[in-house]
Amino acid sequence: MSDLAPRLPRNAVATIHQFLRGHAGPPASQGGVVGLSGGLDSAVTARLARDALGADRVLGVLLPDPGYPEALQRETREFAEALGIEHRTLPLGPAVEAMRAVIPEVTDRVTLGNLTARLRMTLLYALARERNRLVIGTGNKSELLLGYFTKYGDGGVDLLPIGDLYKSQVRALALELQIPAPVRERPPTAGFWEGQTDEGEIGVPYEQIDRILYGFEQLRTEEEVHASTGIPLAAVQALARRLAQNRHKRRLPPIPKLGLRTVGLDWRE
After folding, report:
1. Which residue from 80, 103, 116, 246 has the least number of CB within 10 angstroms?
2. Do 239 and 210 form a contact (C-beta atoms < 8 A)?
3. Domain for residue 130, yes or no?
């Protein structure tokens, strides 16, 4: 049985630093704005941005909803202070309640969670625009492939520096960067509701998710991934369906072909 587990590339940090400097450094931009959630991905992203751009060119923004634990807010602010970056806390409660008052008929918790994610990104872009900075996203490759993000919410960003690293690779990078243990060990969650976790919602632990997705990246069939990893075929097939169903999240909005060159089809930048 072969091992399909993705490994952290040795040049990952240097490549990401160069990427961030090229896109978010002068003269193209005056730095970046990073949403801080208290989770692993945002902590790693903030650290990489600080190291690449300098502490004075990174703004960390904590956008807690009413259910966000005060202890986690405090820990996240302390992490930003340890990085030496400017940070702000903008409670989302008033904005969420205002939106819910406009559409009181919407009660589905996933829909409301997506609404909160889009409000967060709206505020990040407002702050970035005022400072001539870019919004630096925190999504990883596992989330991007599975569509485990909110379209035009946490998926609506300018840059995705860890977007080509699977969650397991981000964990390895966090260890290399000496991200605090409580952050590394906290169960990944979108924070949509109390007790919600990524793995609980997806139904498969990230260790298996990444091995399956890595197998697909290597152009293995579902049966080959199952045979190579020993992961139940039903789980492999479920992720394959999710990968296909969320293809629209990884593409520009479709446009009908009418002109000589069409954005998203054959207009090459």
Report:
1. 103
2. no
3. yes
Would the pTM of this model clear 0.90, i.e. be above it? yes
CATH number of the domain to which 52 belongs: 3.40.50.620
Number of domains composing the chain? 1
Domain that holds residue 116: 12-200
Integer angstrom CA distances of residue 174 from 84, 87, 148, 261: 18, 21, 21, 42
Q: What is the pLDDT along the chain (269 residues), one digit of tens a residue?
A: 457 889 999 999 999 999 999 999 999 999 999 999 999 999 999 999 999 999 999 999 999 998 889 999 999 999 999 999 999 999 999 999 999 999 999 999 889 999 999 999 999 999 999 999 999 999 999 999 999 999 999 999 999 999 999 999 999 999 999 999 999 988 776 666 566 666 667 778 889 999 999 999 999 999 999 999 999 999 999 999 999 999 999 998 999 999 999 998 999 87
Amino acid identity of 112?
A: L
- How far apart CA 244 and CA 247 sit, in angstroms, is 5
H or E segment to which residue 32 belongs: strand 32-36
Give the DSSP letter of residue 158: S
Question: In whole angstroms, what is the distance from residue 263 CA to residue 269 CA?
Answer: 9
